[in-house]
Structure formats: C-alpha cells, structure tokens
Write a structure and sequence with these properties.
By secondary structure, this protein is an alpha+beta fold. It is about 30% helix and about 30% strand.
C-alpha cells in the first residue's frame, strides 16, 4: 500500500512539473529540491511506520493467545489505537510529500497588462483574467472591455489589453444626454444613446468623427414647410409721346389692370426657428395689363410779324442814299447814319419777347428739358398743377431709370433732415437714394430726396411725394410700378 501511495505521489509531482511553463534550468532546480525534501521526509516516516507495525504485531499475538475475554476486550481497544497509528502516519507522510512537491504553494504567473496604451508587468497568483483585473485596482467600468475574456485562465507571458470607454455629451435642441462609448465614432455614441435622428438633421462634428473623452455633440433638428400665397403683379404706367396731340394734353388709351401669380416658398426651420425662405415655383395666373398714356408734344408754330411802314420807308431812304453816295460825302455819311438807324429799328421790330416762365427752363426742339434744374427751380412752384407742368427731362440729363414698386403722397410739417417740406420734397430710403438726389416723377414733376419717413428698411422700393393738401394726397393715392428717373448731378 505504501508503494502504491508513493507511486501516486511521484506521478502527481511529474504532472505538476509538466503543467508549469518554465525553463529547463528552473525545472531541474525544482526537481532536485523536491527529491531532497522527499528523501528526508520518507526516511523519518519509514522509522515511524516500522515501529508502529512492530507494536501492532506484538499486540495481536497477545490477543489471540487466549488470555481471557475481559482482558481480550481491553487489549482489543488498545489494539485499535495501534491500528490507527500507521494510518495516521501514512497520511502525514502523504501530506508531507505533497507539501514538499509544492502542492500547497500558490502558483505565480507573469503577465503584462496594456491599460489603454499604458503597459504594466505583473507577477500574480491570480488564476483568471477577471481576478487579475479585480484584485489589482484597474477599476473597469461596465462599458470598458478586454481583448481576452475575463473567465480565461492566466498563463505565463500573456498580454491583456484593456480598452477604455470615453464619455460624450449629446445636445439635441437643448436636451443634454451623457453616454459612454468604447472607442467609437459620433454615430456610435448617438446610436447607443437611443436618440432619434431625422432625415435632414445636422450633426456636429460629423457622424464619422472618432470621439475622445468629453466630446460634445450637437444635433440640430431641421424641418421644412412649403408655403403657398397669391402675389399681386402691379401694372406699369407707360407714357408715349404723341406729336399729334397738343403739348400738355394727356389721353389714357389703355387702362391698367393688375395681374396675379401663385408663389410657393420653401421655409427651413432649425430647432424650431425660421432659418431660410426660398421661392421654389411661381405660376402666373393673370398677366398685368400696362396702362398706356399718350402725352402731347405738338407745339403750334408762331406767326412771323409783318414789317411796319416805318421800316419800309427807312429801307427805301437807305437805298436812295446809297445811290447818291458818290455825289456827296455828306450825303454818304448821312446815308450810313440812316442805314444804321433803319437796321436798328428793323431788328427791334422782328425780335420776339420771351415770357418769364419759359426762360427758366431750357428745352430742346421736342420740348424736353436739357439742363438739370436747380434746387430753387425744383421748389419754385406755388401750386401742384404748376409743378407737374414742367417739361419732362431729355435723355441727356437722365442718369438712371428706376421702376418703383409704389409711389405714395404725404402731408407733413417736418422732415427727417430738418428741412421744411415743400412741393418737390421726396422721401426715400437714403441707403438706396442718397439725400440731395434729383429725380423726376411723371405726373408730379421734379423732386429732390430730402426726407426718409417710413422708407428705411423696407424691402420694396417706395417713394413718398410731398403735396400741399390732404385731398391732393388722396387723389394721388398709391401708384404701382411707376417708371421714374434719376437725374445726373448738376
């Protein structure tokens, strides 16, 4: 039995040596150490076993020699003790052999831990990857991972890599959520958070950007809406010169009518706020009809005055004096004086006096103004009728033609520039039409930008004309798509 026990002990020691990954030098040293301990223990145990068996044999002889029943029972109880002694001794021997073989020593393993790029070499008695991580203060979160399962046993030379998760803060329209992601992208963080992303939503930084610790992600909700509206197409006022119509006369030959169009706009909202508005389609439902007005340009020619009787007599005397000039120098001198006098009278008789009103406007043969009016001329009219009767501008003094969305009229006692409003004062957006710009408005006359009023910051182009009375303003009303003229700098 002892032989079998020793063989089993020897087999266990060999298996233990084979299972340990060690160098040949270490294996040899360990075997020598085990043999030395085993020999010492076996020698000591052999003596104890021999003595135990000798005593047991002697006691058995006495029992079976027939020394009485009572004495026999006493001896048997003593003999049981001696039977237990060898069994206990053998157990002690086995434990000693196992201890000598290192069965009760903790197995040490050399491993390397790569903690998110930081490598640590450890000599540990832990058996599994999970024990190593837990017992050495690596403090893994639930989202952190290792490249080797936590349940796998450790082995010498093993390298364990820990992948650390990163925290990302997601802000969607003011709602903030924190999420931890293991070495992922912005898209991975959003997917893990469970946040729903719309088809047109904008994500900053881009969805394929790799996150780092404390990455901030902004999600902007983008929505679209199509708005449909009907827009008025205002008619234009067209004036055409008519040489068959007397100057100053106007005739409307085609009445203007507004048109309409359907407009569809696409409105973009970001986080619920309007961000952009664009026209995506327009359909004309009714074309506008322009208003055509004929403006008379015909000027009746003036009759040539007949020469007076005095002028005729002087002419005859002059001719007669010329014929007799050779006869007498005095007569010649007298004839020259008479001729000069006659010429002076003739010039005076044929000259046509100019009216004071027409002399202030310099016009061409077509009756159009060829010199930019002065400020005094613009504000010289005492009535609106007189102001609008001024001759229209010739192309030579027109700097630019503009079509205004609306032209209105107003009555006021002050202006934004401090100037007193007069006939010819025009209010406009000074960013588009600087103060002091001279203009011509058909049906009103010449004007000068001297006021702002409510024109500033309006999208449509609008002029407001000063008129002396409220009734005249109401009569003017609101005119659409009016072609006006910007005059050259005088």
């Amino acid at each position: 039995m002892i032989k079998d026990l020793l063989e089993k002990i020897s087999l266990y020691i060999r298996k233990k040596d084979d299972s340990e990954a060690a160098t040949p030098e270490k294996t040899g040293e360990k075997q020598d150490r085990i043999k030395e301990k085993l020999s010492s223990v076996l020698l000591s145990a052999a003596g104890a076993v021999k003595s135990a068996f000798t005593g047991m044999t002697d006691r058995l002889k006495e029992v079976f020699a027939g020394q009485g029943q009572k004495k026999e029972r006493k001896k048997l109880s003593i003999d049981r003790f001696y039977l237990l002694v060898p069994i206990i001794s053998l157990s002690v021997i086995a434990l000693a052999v196992l201890y000598a073989g290192g069965a009760f020593e903790k197995r040490m393993t050399r491993v390397v831990v790569n903690d998110n790029g930081r490598e640590v070499s450890l000599l540990t008695a832990d058996q599994s990857v999970g024990e190593l991580i837990s017992n050495n203060g690596f403090g893994m979160r639930e989202e952190d991972k290792t490249d080797i399962p936590l349940t796998e046993n450790l082995s010498d030379g093993m390298t364990i890599t820990i992948f650390r998760s990163s925290n990302a803060t997601i802000n969607k329209n003011g709602k903030i959520q924190d999420v931890r992601v293991l070495a992922g992208t912005v898209g991975d963080a959003i997917e893990k958070s469970g946040i729903r992303i719309g088809e047109h939503d904008e994500i900053y930084p881009s969805i394929d950007t790799y996150i780092t610790e404390d990455t901030s992600i902004d999600i902007i909700e983008v929505d679209f809406e199509e708005v449909q509206e009907v827009v008025t197409l205002y008619y234009a006022e067209i004036k055409e010169d008519d040489p068959a119509l007397k100057k100053g006369k106007t005739v409307v030959v085609q009445k203007g009518e507004d048109g309409y169009k359907e407009r569809i706009e696409r409105v973009t909202y970001k986080n619920g706020q309007e961000f952009d508005r664009r026209v995506i389609s327009e359909t004309v439902l009714k074309e506008p009809v322009n208003q055509i007005t004929k403006v008379g340009t015909y000027v009746e020619p003036k009759a040539t005055p007949k020469p007076s009787s005095i002028a005729s007599a002087s002419a005859k005397g002059s001719a007669k004096a010329t014929k007799t000039a050779k006869a007498s120098s005095k007569a010649s001198s007298s004839s020259k004086s008479s001729s000069k006098a006659t010429q002076t009278k003739k010039s005076t008789a044929t000259a046509t006096p100019k009216s004071s009103s027409s002399s202030s406007w310099k016009t061409n043969s077509s009756g159009k103004l060829i010199v930019v009016p002065t400020v005094a001329q613009i504000h010289s009219s005492s009535t609106l009728a007189q102001h609008k009767s001024a001759p229209p501008p010739d192309e030579s003094i027109i700097k630019e033609t503009v079509v205004l969305d609306d032209v209105t009229a107003y009555v006021d006692t002050s202006t934004s520039t401090g100037a007193y409003p007069r006939i010819g004062t025009v209010a406009a957006d000074p960013k588009r039409f600087p103060y002091g710009t001279k203009v011509y408005v058909p049906g009103y006359g010449y004007g000068r930008i001297e006021d702002t009023g409510s024109m500033r910051h309006r999208e449509e182009t609008l002029w407001d004309l000063f008129m002396p009375t409220e009734s005249q303003c109401k009569s003017w009303g609101r005119k659409h798509n009016v072609k006006c003229y910007i005059l050259k700098d005088s």
